[in-house]
Every structure is written in C-alpha cells, then in structure tokens.
C-alpha cells in the first residue's frame, strides 16, 4: 500500500512540466546511472563493459511518446539501425521493444502497424542470430500483445522472439498456461504500471507469491525463464527451487535493470548463473528515469544527493 502511494506520488510529481524541465536541465549526470547514453554507440559500449563481468545485455531504445504512424515506423527504423550497429560491432543483438512504440493499435494497409514493424525488426534480428523480447505494457494491451506474440512466434520461432508476463495481473497464471504449447521464452516481471484493483493484486505479498508460482510453473513446463527482478528473496528461492528440482543453470537467467543492484548482478554471474542487464538508451530518457525513481526511495535519495552536490 505504502509502495503504491509512493509510486503514485513520484509519478504525479514527475509528470509536472516544471519538474521535468528542472530534471532535464540538471539530471543527465544522474540519469546516466540508469541509462547508458543517448546513442547506439554508447549502449554498445555498455554491452562491452558488462561483458567483462560475464553479464549479458538486452538493448532497449527509449521512446514512449511516439504518436503518428510515421514516428512509429521511424522508431522501428532506429531499432533496426541499432541491430545493424551491434552486429557490425560483433554483438549478437538481444533487444526489447514496446509494441506501442512501433505502432500497435494503428492500422496501415489493413494490418496492425505494430505487427508490421515488429516483423521487420525480428526479421533483421534473426538474420544476425539475435532475439527480440516484446515488453508488456498496461493491461488494455495484454490481449493484443499476446496474440501478436503468438503470430510472430509462428513466423520466426521461439529462438528469436519472446514476451513478458506480469505477476500483478490476476489473469497472468492463466495466460502463462495458455502459451505452454509454444514452449515460449518468457520474461516474468512483477509489473510496472499503475493498475486498478479490478485487474491487479493491490497487495505486494500477493504479487510476490504469484511471481514465484509463475516462475516455478514455467520451469516445470520445461520452458526457458527470464527471472526479471531485483528481489533478493525471490532470487534466492528460485536458485533453491532449481537446485531441488534438478533444473540446470542453463534453463533460466536472471535479468535486472542497468545500474540497479550491480553488486548482485556481478555476484550471480560470478556464481555461474546467466545474468542479463536491460540497457536503456536514447534521447527520450526522462519517463524511464522517473519510473526508476518511483520504484524505490533509495533511488530518489541517490538523485537528491547528486542534485545537492550541484
Ligand atoms: P520489488 O519492487 O519488490 O523490489 C525488490 C527489491 O529490489 C527491493 O529491495 C527494492 O528496493 C529493490 N529494487 C527494485 N527496483 C529497484 C530500483 N529501481 N532501484 C533500486 N532498487 C530497486 N515491467 C513491466 O510492466 N513490463 C515489462 O516489460 C518489464 N520489463 C522489465 C525487464 C527487466 C529486466 C526488469 C528487471 C524489470 C522489468 N519490468 C517490466 C519492471 C518490473 O515490472 C518491476 O517494476 C521492477 O522490476 C521492480 O520490481 P522488482 O521485481 O525488482 O521487485
């Protein structure tokens, strides 16, 4: 409850233009903790840096206020440019996209533009042996995202496309089961959007319990699981569960956000677990940065200390 109030308060304040302008003017230095940079080259440098610690990467071009079909298609082009740049630099690209950013919900030539653009991105990623994860957004988009995932999985195969399920939604355990026929590569998260009680558990304990159930069920069904959380108690339980059930360290990976719990990321990689950091980059960093601050007062303190230092 307190978590939700804190998140709501921060997101409300962050949404005000004066706050945004002040943070944009002074905040880039602090945002760099959570965002790799503004260009593909800065993100690629971050991939190389993490590799030194045995940590894999997931590149994410930021861009949430993309409105027109032309902007969506341009955004998809920019993702493809990043795939090309990563490949040219010897990296097998692993990227995440939000279908809304590439046109989901907009129809062009009789087809959903999000699907058309996602197809272009995945086709290019596949050429390079890469992987594209379809991020999950707010609850009204879940049905369409899962349907489009199924279509794209059919066209490109599970080695090249995956998606995300959110444990805070009541519907998610059923959704997970309904995808089992695909043996899908799924990322399990708790969920980052402000959702009403009609669709999502209001209590954190229920979200956490559902999270564990989802990961275990996905493992038991023989699927690859991306355990995307910074929650140490869950990470510990997943390690124990895998050990007790003979699930190999190759059957799952831990995923965390760039700049968050770097100690934990390094320790897990050193212990032989697969670890992947989600590396956001791009000029549109402010909304992403605000959400990280909203996740925990610890991050707000980090930023405040930086601002006081001037
Ligand atoms: P929780 O919030 O319970 O935190 C557990 C512990 O980690 C606490 O001690 C907390 O303080 C610490 N912690 C959490 N966030 C922190 C932060 N930002 N900084 C410092 N400490 C922090 N969501 C979504 O809706 N759709 C998506 O597609 C994705 N994709 C995605 C990819 C990856 C790789 C990750 C890690 C997360 C996402 N998310 C997401 C976000 C996710 O839903 C969730 O909001 C955050 O991961 C925070 O939840 P935790 O699981 O970390 O647990």
From TrEMBL:
Keywords: FAD, Flavoprotein, Nucleotide-binding, Oxidoreductase, Proline metabolism
Pfam families: Pro_dh (PF01619)
UniProt pathway: Amino-acid degradation; L-proline degradation into L-glutamate; L-glutamate from L-proline: step 1/2
Name of the protein: proline dehydrogenase
Listed EC numbers: 1.5.5.2
Catalysed reaction equations from the record: L-proline + a quinone = (S)-1-pyrroline-5-carboxylate + a quinol + H(+)
InterPro entries: FAD-linked_oxidoreductase-like, PRODH_bac_arc, Proline_DH_dom, Proline_oxidase
Membrane-spanning residues: none
Coiled coil regions in record: none
Domain Proline dehydrogenase stretches: 44-303
Cofactor(s) for this UniProt protein: FAD
Organism: Deinococcus knuensis
């Amino acid at each position: 409850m307190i978590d939700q109030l804190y998140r709501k308060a921060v997101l409300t304040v962050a949404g005000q233009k004066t706050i945004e302008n002040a943070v944009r003017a002074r905040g880039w230095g602090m945002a760099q903790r959570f965002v790799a940079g503004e260009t593909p080259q800065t993100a690629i440098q971050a991939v190389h840096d993490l590799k030194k610690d045995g940590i894999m990467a997931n590149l994410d071009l930021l861009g949430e206020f993309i409105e027109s079909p032309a902007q969506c298609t341009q955004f998809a082009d920019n993702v493809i440019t990043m795939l090309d740049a990563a490949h040219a630099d010897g990296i097998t690209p692993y990227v995440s996209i939000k279908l809304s950013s590439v046109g989901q919900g907009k129809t062009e030539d009789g087809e959903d533009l999000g699907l058309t653009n996602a197809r272009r991105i995945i086709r290019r990623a596949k050429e390079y042996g890469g992987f594209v994860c379809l991020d999950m957004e707010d609850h009204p988009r879940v049905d369409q995202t899962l349907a489009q995932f199924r279509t794209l999985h059919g066209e490109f195969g599970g080695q090249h496309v995956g998606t995300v399920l959110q444990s805070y939604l009541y519907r998610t355990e059923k959704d997970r089961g309904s995808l089992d026929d695909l043996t899908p590569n799924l990322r399990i998260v708790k969920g980052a959007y402000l959702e009403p009680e009609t669709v999502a558990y209001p209590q954190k304990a229920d979200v956490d319990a559902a999270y564990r159930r989802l990961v275990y069920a996905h493992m038991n069904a023989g699927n690859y699981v991306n355990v995307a959380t910074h929650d140490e108690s869950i990470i510990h339980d997943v390690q124990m569960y895998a050990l007790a059930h003979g699930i190999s360290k190759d059957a799952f990976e831990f995923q965390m956000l760039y700049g968050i719990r770097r100690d934990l990321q390094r320790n897990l990689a050193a212990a032989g677990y697969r670890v992947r950091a989600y590396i956001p980059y791009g000029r549109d960093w402010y909304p992403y940065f605000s959400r990280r601050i909203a996740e925990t007062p610890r991050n707000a303190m980090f930023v405040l200390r930086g601002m006081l230092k001037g």
